[in-house]
């Protein structure tokens, strides 16, 4: 099978194509023919090892010293179950599935084997594979942190970085939970964020949300502290009594299969919609896709069709 391997840590050009053996599922695994994948910011951080010196050493110990031990990166997929292990009960060949695995990776390829009891679910029937691949990463992370913060109806929530993969999901999910949502983004993305349900959109290039009279029960940093540190330095001044600031970098999120199923059901009903910018037509475009994500201005998710 064709696969993209990460030969060492570095810029997008370290990604190379290789012919690998098609994996054989173990007893509890399913083999999936991948039809679409996503290039996430986490993929790019792993490829480039773009971390502080202390975290970089720890990451090398965990991931591999000179290059990732799991050379085929990619955490997100949408595709078709092609074969199943002897003990698999939840899926059968021909099932259309989508999912997320931040530990095994492997989705920059034509096939992958994942455990059936992981973050894997039937794909919403009304979505394309590309649309389905745009849901798990941002959706699962946003749902975890909003739930952790106890977001409920009637609260006021500000999403900083509202136009990214996590941010576009957070805006929609917070609104679904009944909160009044303010999105913070650049000028070019204001219309998009408003269309996702934000009742107010702040252009961070023109104003600082802290200086307004608005006060928030939750300020959610959806881009990570490395990018948001200076912009959110005074965020506590914009909190309501008992309000909280939460970042996507806070702790290790506990992601659940039932949440992936819930996101699929919401997408089926039109309660959330995937945001894609852009779709690359072939796995051969992987280097360009990584360059685009590295540039830091993507809207929603960057998706590749796997051919």
Summarize the model shown.
With about 300 residues, the protein is an alpha/beta fold.
Distance between the termini: 11 Å
Q: Which band does the percent of strand residues land in?
A: 25-35%
CATH level 1 class label of the largest domain: Alpha Beta
Q: Identify the overall geometry.
A: globular
- Total number of helices: 9
Q: What is the average of the pLDDT values?
A: 95
Under the CATH scheme, which architecture of the largest domain would be assigned? Alpha-Beta Complex
* Total domains: 2
Structural notes for this entry:
- The chain is of the alpha/beta class and 307 residues long.
- It has 9 helices and 14 strands.
- It starts with a strand and ends with a strand.
List the helices and strands and how they pair.
Layout: E1 2-6, E2 15-19, E3 29-39, H1 41-48, H2 53-63, E4 76-84, E5 96-100, E6 111-115, E7 120-122, H3 129-133, H4 136-148, E8 156-160, H5 165-176, E9 180-185, H6 190-195, E10 200-203, E11 216-221, H7 225-228, E12 239-247, H8 257-269, E13 276-280, H9 286-295, E14 301-305
Parallel strand pairs: 8-9, 8-11, 9-10, 11-12, 13-14
Antiparallel strand pairs: 1-2, 3-4, 3-6, 3-14, 4-5, 5-7
């Amino acid at each position: 099978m064709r696969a993209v391997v990460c030969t060492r840590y570095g810029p997008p050009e370290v990604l190379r194509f290789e012919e690998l053996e098609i994996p054989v599922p173990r007893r509890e695994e399913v083999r999936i023919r991948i039809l679409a994948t996503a290039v996430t910011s986490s993929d790019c951080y792993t490829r480039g090892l773009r971390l502080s010196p202390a975290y970089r050493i720890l990451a090398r110990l965990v991931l591999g010293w000179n290059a990732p031990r799991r050379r085929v990166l990619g955490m997100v997929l949408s595709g078709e179950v092609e074969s199943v292990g002897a003990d698999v009960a939840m899926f059968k060949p021909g099932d259309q599935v989508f999912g997320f695995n931040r530990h095994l990776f492997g989705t920059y390829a034509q096939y992958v084997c994942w455990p059936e009891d992981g973050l894997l679910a039937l794909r919403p029937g009304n979505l394309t594979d590309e649309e389905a691949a745009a849901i798990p990463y941002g959706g699962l992370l946003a749902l975890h942190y909003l739930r952790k913060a106890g977001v409920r109806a009637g609260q006021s929530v500000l999403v900083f970085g509202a136009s990214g993969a996590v941010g576009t999901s957070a805006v929609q999910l917070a609104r679904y939970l009944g909160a009044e949502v303010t999105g913070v983004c650049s000028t070019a993305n204001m219309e998009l964020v408003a269309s996702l349900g934000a009742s107010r959109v702040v252009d961070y290039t023109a104003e600082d949300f802290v200086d307004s009279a608005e006060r928030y029960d939750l300020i959610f940093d959806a881009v990570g502290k490395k990018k948001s540190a200076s912009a959110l330095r005074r965020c506590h001044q914009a909190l309501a009594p008992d309000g909280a600031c939460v970042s996507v970098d806070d702790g290790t999120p506990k992601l659940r299969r039932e949440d992936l199923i819930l996101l699929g059901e919401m997408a089926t009903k039109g309660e959330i919609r995937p945001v894609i910018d852009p779709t690359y037509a072939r796995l051969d475009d992987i280097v360009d896709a990584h360059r685009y994500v590295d540039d830091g201005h993507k809207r929603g998710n960057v998706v590749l069709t796997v051919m």
